[in-house]
Design brief:
This is Sodium channel protein Nach. This protein has about 425 residues and is of the alpha+beta class. The chain contains 13 helices and 20 strands. A hairpin with a 2-residue loop joins strand 14 and strand 15. Helix 1 packs across helix 2.
């Protein structure tokens, strides 16, 4: 038994103070993916450049700007394919930053389509920020960064490939933040101000924001399975209460293969994001699958992806992206080796090398919401905090140490 399964996970007798567990990475994402004001401003810019050379006027360009939102969710229908291709050609021809000799299909979504500008400045929608009971400028705590939902304001996230980090993380020597005290007054608090008239392309059939919880080192994406999403509607105060589990593995486990111990240590394997985590490994797998099937890189992944994997996906790639979108949202179980799921295996990501981490923290979020009363209700208040001063600690240990083996086999020999 111990040869096939040489490790065992047990609950430690002593709990771990929250000060020794990293606060999760927090992403604040507007459900409105495209700002109406920004889209119209960009339409005016393009119209002035194309002038009489194009049949598209400002109104038509403004309406077509909605198509860029499809690069977030890969939505597509065949009856609009011709329009998408024509607008893609228009963007390539009249984009102010596009080189004259650029090849068709090399249109740079991230920088040249300016999806960042279209999404609006997320920091403008945040106010009344606090961390650890101390009032801070929201720009000290958050930075605009890419997530699975495009550009969001992120707190306590360290992108190892592009280390643009917040002021407060720089104050802590470029390290992830920890909360030393528990309770609503000592976590992260902020107000989300919503401009309803600026909605132009919504991700959901509602208004408000999504709050994403992930490891501070991991790219925020639901495919990994470790990310938690919470919807915060307009006009509520949300208390998002954190609990966590810490898991560590003894060094003695390194003598066993990854397959035997069923986990990978942080510096043992690298992904395109840097040091190993199961979440980033799955994202690596997903990015390579998109590149293999559609020969392009989705704009939200382009900063991490190697340049040799392909160009950035454009409106011309939506037919392919839509075809496989469901596949990229689910993972085939790595440890399932029975027959009967051949179809499911084809219709899901197959990331067999993405083992759990040997040392990690897992987060859980309990949500409570109360209605805000008053006349101006176009905002929400969010409080994120640990609800207890301690977290459970789990230990992955080897079943037998060398001295146990000597004792066991020595006893058998004596018999």
């Amino acid at each position: 038994m111990f040869i096939t399964d040489p490790t065992i996970v047990t609950l430690e007798k002593f709990t771990l103070p929250i000060s020794e567990v990293p606060f999760p990475g927090i992403s604040v994402c507007n459900i409105n993916r495209i700002s109406r004001k920004a889209a119209y401003s960009m339409a005016l810019d393009y119209a002035s450049r194309s002038g009489s050379k194009s049949s598209l006027n400002v109104t038509a360009i403004f309406e077509n700007m909605k198509h860029l939102g499809k690069l977030y969710d890969f939505s597509f229908s065949e009856d609009e394919e011709e329009n998408l291709m024509e607008f893609q050609k228009y963007l390539e021809e009249y984009d102010p930053h596009q080189p004259e000799d650029a090849l068709k299909g090399n249109f740079n979504v991230l920088e040249k389509m300016r999806l960042l500008q279209l999404s609006g400045n997320c920091l403008e929608g945040l106010s009344d920020c606090k961390w650890g009971g101390e009032k801070r400028s929201c720009s000290d705590l958050f930075i605009p960064e890419l997530t699975m939902d495009g550009f969001c304001c992120i707190f306590n996230y360290f992108d190892r490939n592009h280390p643009q980090i917040s002021k407060i993380m720089r104050e802590h020597f470029n390290k992830t933040l920890h909360s030393s005290r528990f309770g609503r007054d000592f976590g992260l608090t902020f107000r989300i101000n919503v401009n309803l008239s600026d909605y132009y392309y919504s991700a959901l059939a509602t208004m408000g924001s999504k709050i994403l919880f992930s490891s501070a080192d991991d790219f925020p994406d639901t495919t990994s399975g470790s990310l938690i999403e919470k919807l915060v509607p307009i006009g509520v105060e949300a208390n998002l209460e954190l609990t966590a589990q810490s898991i560590y593995t003894v060094q003695e486990a390194r003598k066993y293969s990854i397959e035997k111990r069923n986990c990978i240590f942080k510096h043992e394997v690298r992904t395109i994001f840097g040091d190993y985590s199961q979440s980033d490994c799955i994202m690596d797998c997903k990015i390579r699958s998109v590149a293999a099937l559609c020969e392009c890189i989705a704009f939200m992944h382009v900063k991490a992806a190697p340049t040799d994997l392909g160009y950035q996906c454009t409106l011309a790639d939506l037919a392919c992206l839509s075809k496989y979108a469901a596949k990229w949202r689910q993972i085939y179980p790595r440890d399932y080796d029975q027959e009967g799921l051949e179809r499911e295996k084809q219709d899901a990501l197959n990331c067999q090398k993405c083992y759990p981490e040997c040392d990690t923290s897992r987060y859980f979020v309990n949500s409570e919401q109360g209605i805000i009363t008053g006349t101006d209700l176009n905002y929400s208040i969010v409080n994120i905090f640990f609800e207890t001063p301690y977290v459970e600690q789990h230990k992955q240990d080897v079943v037998y140490y060398w001295f146990d083996m000597i004792s066991m086999f020595g006893g058998s020999a004596a018999l």
